[in-house]
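Person: Show me a sequence?

Helper:
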Amino acid sequence: MTEANRRDAGRVLTYPCGTPPTRGEAREIAPGVRWMRLALPVSLAHINVWAIEEAEGHALIDTGLGDDDTIDAWRTLLNGPLAKGVTRVIVTHLHPDHVGMAGWLTREHRRRLWMTRTEYLQCRMLAGDTGHPAPDDAIAFYRRAGWDDATLEAYRQRFGTFGRLISPLPGGYRRIRDRDVIAIGGRDWEVIVGAGHTPEHACLHCPSLKLFVSGDQVLPRISSNLSVLPSEPDADPLAEWLTSLDEIGKRVPNDVLVLPAHNEPFVGLHARLAQLAASHRRAIERLYAALGKPRRAIDTFSTLFGRAIESKDASNYGLATGESLAHLNYLVNRGLVTVHEDDDGVAWYRAV
């Protein structure tokens, strides 16, 4: 997202909840609904998590990263403002900052994990990679995107870290589906499933409270990462995400308070949906214009993100590769770009 887009978002969105809660604080932002923040050791610095009061405790939505610092933060909360206990743990999607403490919380409190099926199963799959070497298909995938030998070797060395970022998931879970209506805290919450950021991301809408828990599907100041991954190299997550934004706009009214996973709660959902869609459509146009000559996925970073991304920045380099491929696959799937693989297994993309 460009700086101009950030300024536009600031003009049309409002943030009525004030400064974020501090460590150990659970701030009530609607009747029975509390906002908490957990630290992350990455540039985002935090994740928002939510607690909804019920008769016997609190339903928790998202859980933070699976590390000792987050365990300490949860113990502070559960011995303080959430001392009433836990009734269930709901996770929006499989990324470690959301699902990381779900296993620990469900075991500590003998409560059920609630997730969509694809998110639960893919999380189990990724956790199962820990301790195993990087598969040949994954190496070929990143070589095809243009990674050099040194970058591929660094990837081999760090492969399988996902399982070390989460507490092991419970062996069973409660499945939630799109359009399910769940009673939480005596009020109805509708499940609205999006895709693109992850395959089956669950958002929650409470009409009576005018609240929308958006997870990573809608964020106020940054755009969700949309990545093609080695497990599904021909995926079209950008198309899925744009469709999801349109669906959210149809099903959720504009006057809700949006509770995102990062940044602050905001009002102005429909404007933000339009901004996000427009930003990616402009990126598609820039990319198409740049493909007058053949380029690899890694050659498109400056066009898409407005800056170079170095391979030594391993995390951002991987995210940028996945997002570049998402935009390239979008164009390929619509017949606007052709792709040719050279003798070294590297893919070159060119506008038709």
Summary: The chain is about 35% helix and 20% strand.
